[in-house]
Amino acid sequence: MMAEVRLTPSAFLRRRLDGTHPVDEWGLDPDVIGLVSPLLGVRWSVETRWSERIPREGPAVLVHNRALGLSEPVVLARGVRQATGRHVRTAGLVDVAPIVTVGRVLGAVVDRPAELRSVLRAGHLVALPLDRDVRPRRAGRLAPAALAPALATGAPVVPVALVGREVGRRWRLLVGEPIAHPPGRGPLAVADLVGAARAGVQDLLDSASTRWG
User: Fold this and answer.
1) Which listed residue, 61, 88, 136, 157, has the most CB atoms within 10 A of its CB?
2) How distant, in Å, are the alpha carbons of 1, 155, 161, 173, 187 from that of 48?
3) Mapping DSSP to helix (H, G, I), strand (E, B) and coil, where does residue 124 land?
């Protein structure tokens, strides 16, 4: 696990110049994340509940809801980092320069099965968003094969609900119980896992509506 690093601007530049800044195999640069983290804190305030359900080490796939805005991946990564000290690899990065270069620096990964399997085998947390849904607090769909890398690697699948408004600052991150893997590795097993993950996210969203309106 690469812990978040907070550097002064001069220390940041010095590590750039002397080549001592750490960058992992997929391009994540914790120095850059540490530098922009205070700015993210001005824009987003995240309250995380039941963070103990996120593994403190080893791989896991965090399946989460997504609406029409851009906040959810940042809110998830920030909330998990604050609660556990771990970085999140957000799946779905577009493999087009310069977007892919900037995205990798901030921890995103390309949504290809081979890359996701590699990231999980290396023990990272991967955030896997559901399809966008225009309806408030509704879990979108998930491609049938999206969780195949989790089955292949044995990584836990954890549903996560993100509750907030795109133009608002305050968000809640609700973490559900890890979902048991179904037996087998075939298409039916993948479909069962996808259905259970989506249902887990929806249960959390429904619970949020009941508790906090």
Assistant:
1) 61
2) 20, 22, 10, 5, 33
3) coil
